[in-house]
Every structure is written in C-alpha cells, then in structure tokens.
Write a structure and sequence with these properties.
The protein is of the alpha/beta class. It is built from eleven helices and six strands.
Length: 291
C-alpha cells in the first residue's frame, strides 16, 4: 500500500510544482525533496532513514537521493513549503462548499521529560500533558479548511480568532463550550458565520453587560429543535480526528524525532495530505488521474 500511495503522492507533488523553477534547481527539484520526505512520513521514519538507498524498493525512484543535510536545509525553504501548500489546495478542490463547519483542537502529546523548548504544558482532554495542539476547521471533506499548530497551552478561542477570518463563504460554525466568548462570536459574525457553541455556564443569567448578537442568536438556536439537531453535527469532528489516526500512514502520536514546532507543523501537514489522499483514493471521487 505504501508503494502505491507514494507513487500518487509523487505525481501530485510534481503536478503542483512550478515547472519554471526546474531549470533553476542546482541538483534536486522541489517536488523531489517533497517526494523523499513523504516516503519517510508514510513509513513513520526520520529523514536520515529515507536518505539511505537500502530503504527504497528497486525501480521505485528515478532520481538520486539527497543527503540528510540537504533534506534538512531544503524542507524549510519557502519554495518547498509553498509546494506542500499547493498540494493541500489541490485536494481542497474536491471538497463541497457546505454551510456547516466544525472547529476543534486535538492534543499532540510528547514525553513529559522532553527537552523541546517549543512545547508547553496544557489541558489534554480531562488531564494535563506536554506537547502541541492541532487546531482545525473541518467542512465536508477530510482536509481541514484552516488549521494551525500551537503549543498545548494556547487557548482554542485565541487560535479560532485567527482561523475564522480566513474561511470562505459563510454558514454555521459549530464548537464546544470553550468557544463561547463574545469577541469570538463578533469575529464569526463579521466573517459571515453564525458560531453555535454551548454556554460555558449553562443555567445562569446573562447579566447586564453587552453580549454579541451572534452569542444571543447561538443561545436561542440551542433552545429550538433546529439548533439542537444542527449542534449534533459537532460530534463529526471527533470522527474526523479519529479517522485521521486510524489507518496506516495516519497521524499517530508524534515520534521522538519530530520536535520543535516547525518540524511538527511540517509532519502534521504531510499527514493531513496523506490522509486526504487515502480518503479520496478509497472512498472519494476518481480525481487521481488529474495528477
């Protein structure tokens, strides 16, 4: 499965790369760097493993392997990061523009004795942990519309305030009670979205301070049948995160060589692309011929 999946990833990376830059490449093109990195990510291995020719099947690749230092230098360049962003955009074209989106966060825990200076202690479900968090806004498809990686102690409403303005069109945005804040409701309303979130303190009075019209509308929605049925769709985000982790090449717990936030962000981005490709390959439209 990994071999066939990598072939599709290779064609997708090549199709999303800019051919005008190929003549500028001194030795390795951007899509080749990305393809080598994806061979490591699909197998949950570090880049030093993928730079060894013994770990490649015969006849699979048609280019020389870069060194570990070349991979470390090229992966964080603007051009390679832009190429991976283009791969995300290609897969996003096959998602329907639904009017319901869901926002939530997934903890990415590391060891408690990790020396990573970018990760922090924070809430991880009902417990505390050390690590990072994936904040994502999902629509109808497997690829999130917007996502961000932060240390675990960064609040979900703070990140949502940056993600919501970048969302396309409008509609309903569902979140848990952590997103019940007047500033966030105002941001969502200004972007064309009605944020629907349970109250942090249900059963209490609203008091005399000003409340966002979006928050008042959210409270009213959750009192009628339409709003209650709509809010049940929020449970879909748990299935999305679960599906993301429950297949080969999916987003398993962060391995011990994925530390510092730039490496975590690149690793998670590759996992999101692999997951979306697996979903479309086995459950979605026949789009792979385009690549």
């Amino acid at each position: 499965m990994e071999r066939e999946l990598w072939k599709i990833l290779y064609r997708l990376a090549k199709a999303c790369d800019n051919p005008l830059r190929w003549w500028m490449a001194t030795y390795y093109r951007d899509f080749e760097i990305v393809a080598v990195y994806f061979w490591a990510v699909v197998h949950d291995r570090p880049t030093c493993w993928v730079c060894d020719p013994k770990n490649w099947p015969k006849g699979l690749r048609r280019f020389a392997l870069p060194s570990q230092s070349t991979m470390s230098r090229r992966l964080w360049t603007t051009e390679v990061q832009h190429l991976m962003h283009n791969m995300e955009g290609f897969l996003m074209r096959f998602e329907g523009h639904g009017w319901v989106k869901v926002v939530d966060g997934k903890p990415l825990i590391v060891g408690t004795h990790s020396k990573d200076c970018d990760c922090e202690w924070g809430r991880a479900g009902r417990n505390y942990g050390k690590g990072y968090k994936l904040h994502a806004v999902f629509g109808n498809g497997p690829m999130p519309w917007q996502w961000e990686i932060t240390p675990l102690n960064v609040g979900e409403p703070e990140v949502a305030a940056r993600l919501i303005p970048a969302l396309p069109q409008g509609g309903y945005l569902l979140g848990d009670k952590q997103y019940d804040s007047n500033p966030l409701h105002d941001i969502a309303l200004g972007t064309g979205y009605q944020l629907v979130a349970e109250r942090k303190r249900p059963g209490t009075e609203l008091g005399h301070r000003r409340h966002s019209p979006g928050r008042l509308r959210s409270i009213e929605l959750l009192r009628n049948d339409f709003g209650k049925d709509l809010y049940q769709c929020r449970d879909d985000v748990e299935r999305r995160f679960g599906w993301l982790t429950n297949h080969g090449g999916g987003l398993a717990p962060l391995p011990n060589w994925v530390r510092r936030i730039h490496r975590v962000r690149c690793w998670v981005q590759a996992k999101l692309i692999i997951h979306a490709l697996c979903v479309y390959l086995y459950h979605g439209p026949p789009m792979l011929a385009v690549a």
